[in-house]
Every structure is written in structure tokens, then in C-alpha cells.
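Researcher: Structure for this, please.
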Amino acid sequence: MPLLSTLLVLLLLFGLSLLLLELRHRLRPASPLRLRPGNFDVRRSGESVEVSGEITIENPHGRMEVFVPEIAVEPVLLGKGSLAEVKRSVSITPLHRDEEARADGYWFAYIVKGHKRTAARIDLRFTAPPGVNVAELLDTLWLDIRWINYGPFGRLVRRDGILVALQRPQPILPEQATWRAGEGCRVLPLRTHLLGVLDNPQEVLERYAGSLIQPGDVLTIGETPLAVIQGRYHHPANVEPSLLARQLCRVFHPTSSLATACGLQSLIDVVGPARVLGAWLVGTALKAVGSKGWFYRLAGDQARLIDDVTGTTPPYDQTIVLGPQDPQAFCEAMARSLGVGVAVVDVNDLGRVKVLASNSGCDEALLHRALRPNPAGNANERTPLVLVRPA
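Model: Predicted structure, C-alpha cell format:
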């Protein structure tokens, strides 16, 4: 009985410790402001490329008022050659409902009140010397937005990124398709533009696969491209690693996306510190008796899906990308719209194929055979879509 009582007390204390850890995480001070992209227009000519669009800053908190004293946009360009001679101009115009913008372009400190929002217009122009076709040279624009949040939580420097495609490849026509032979199937990787939060996933699938699909086909999309379309990425500068994240990240293999404080904190922010710590304790105990992989089972799918810095293609290689949200619902909706099977997959060069989700009735065994050679690649192929056709 004394031993049983001691164990019960220890379990109670452990449970209370997890509860306090969770409460401290959920009640920690943080800025409620969220930056959302609006529509962006691209105007291209041989002499210049002009990009214009809006961003919205919203405050979902009921009572907290937050200052935005500074905001700046740094355009990062990806192209088909040296961009050293490309000249850039950027302007940010506040679109506050209650205060007019200054004629000199100065961004004055603004208070975003509870349940309110404001907006800003971003205008960019890129030019090059005579003889350089800047419209053909530039491929992708990454807007690195750095802005200050100031309020009861202190002063936070936030970084958000918006990808704007400056060029889009022409969809493959059926007579142009070069299918690869697979095991009982044929496979066709589909090249797209670099995908981002401004894209509509259904429009992407229809644009690049709409003229090719036939009944019985299965169209797959990589889990990371779907996640970035959903906006499930963030810069490490926005992450505040806890003591738990700083210490626990050291136990993971150096190549793991959870082996950095920011990577592990990103998982903690999704599932909570109590679940992560509990999963590690149980996983470590079971691993000691020869049963591996329990941390990832107990911590949830995101533990396997998070891609830390360098884990994805540029410019997302500077960010932490989470796994996609509700991939099952996405597959069901896209399958109804396109009339073919749809799956979200995670494939690597080692022959590992994981089907995160697929519509009901989808032949996942076919996908494993077709995708094992990794036809989409894991470098800069820009083929996030792969069409699989039974032989």
C-alpha cells in the first residue's frame, strides 16, 4: 500500500506539472495581430515588371489594442540568371479607414483596435538596362515583410513572406505528354510555377492537369506544396522557443526537423507542450525495451510532417513549413470537382511513399508502386503534381 500510494502521488504530481506546463504555454503573452495577403496583379513588359497588391492586418482580440509603428517590404527575386543589374523600387501606402496616408510615403505608427483591421497597398517596379528583357529574366518574387507589433506583450519583430509568381509555364497538352513507364502504370510529372498562398489549389490542379486527366487516373500533389498554398509556413523569427523546446530538441537526430529549438517549438505551438513532453517520455521508455517510433505516433502527424529551414525549395527554405491542414477533405473535394482520384503524398528519394490522404475508393497500392521511384523529385524540379494512370 505505501508503494501504491507513492506511485499515485507521483502520477498526480506529474499530471499537475503537465497541466501547469500547458497553461503557461496557452497563457503566454503574444501579439494577436495577423497579416493576410490580398490579390496581387503582375504587369509585364520587356522594359519592366510591375507588381501591386494589398495586405490586411487584423486584430481578432476583443480588448487588446496593438500598435504597428513600423512596416517594411524587402523584395527577394528569383530569376533565370544574374539579377545584379535589376533596379527595384518599393512603396507602401497605408489604407487606414480613419486616417489618411501621408503624401511623403511615411508610415506613421498606427493602432489596430480590438476586432478591427487595417490594410496597406504595396507597389513594386523592377527595371533593367537596355538590352535586358527583365520580364523574361524574372521568375518569382518573394515579399519579405518585416513589421513591428507593440503592445502589452512588449515589442515583437514579425516576418511574413508572400510569394508572387511572375511567370507561369504553359500546361502540357495531351499530345505533348511524355509518360514514364511504371509497375502496372504510367506516370506523368507536371511542372507548375512556384506555388504560394496566393494560389487557389483547385485552379492549380485544373490549369496543369485539366486537359490530361481521364477516368481512372489519380492526380497527386505533394504535402509541402499544398501546405504552402494553405499558408502553413512561418519564419523562425516569429517563433519564441521555450525552455522545453531548447532542451528537448537536443535529443533528436541532427537531420530531424525537430532538432532545432524553433522546429520543435513549431510542433509545440500546434499540439501543446504537455503532449510533446508526454510523447517523448513514453516514447523513450518504449524505445528502451525495443519498441521504436512511439514519439511520432503519440505526438501526432505534424511531428513527421514539419519541414525545418532548408527542408523545402527556395524561397521556402528560409521558413518552417507545417503539414497540410485537413488533407482528407481536400482530396474528397478535388475528386468530386475533377472526376478522378486525388491524393496528398509525401515521397522521398529513398523510395519511401506515404499517402497522407486520398479520396474514398482511391487505389493507394497503385500510388505506392507508381511513386516509389520519386518521379517528382526533391530538388528544384517544380513538379508538385504527378498524374498516375493504370496501364
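Researcher: Any notable elements?
Model: The chain has a mean pLDDT of 93. Residues 201 and 229 are 7 Å apart (CA to CA).
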